[in-house]
Amino acid sequence: MDVRPLFLVEQRKKTFKNWPFDEKKKCNVNNMAEAGFYSVATGADDADAAKCFLCGKELDGWEASDDPWLEHKSHAAKCAFVQIGKNEDDLLAPEFLSIVKQYMMNETSRVEEVAIGQIDDKCKLVKRKCLRAK
Ligand SMILES: [Zn+2]
């Protein structure tokens, strides 16, 4: 399973394929990505579904005049990225490293949960086969 480096603003920008607002609007791809969001759209119906790479908060129903940072703050005030509250270029090295560390820890537990689920399924299967073999 791949771990995408979504802690990088350039990587988050790449995820926005059919974002409904252009560069002239406050709620543009650049500002979304700067504020920590990446696109989780699966089609036209949820073209504006976006998620924070760090806290996992998912938001949709964006308006052209929305400020992504303010929306992030008002919906996920405890997010570590919101608490630092800086665009990537303004982050100090220790701030950036703490964000990367947190992201990697989150990703590790996500991958771990998936793996545990798969092992559980396998165990149940083996157990069933053993019971049948008795
Ligand atoms: Zn967040």
Automatic annotation (TrEMBL):
Q: Which Pfam families match?
A: BIR
Residues folding into a coiled coil are none
Q: Which domain of life is it from?
A: Eukaryota
* Gene Ontology molecular functions: metal ion binding
InterPro entries listed in its UniProt record: Baculoviral_IAP, BIR_rpt
This protein is called: (diamondback moth) hypothetical protein
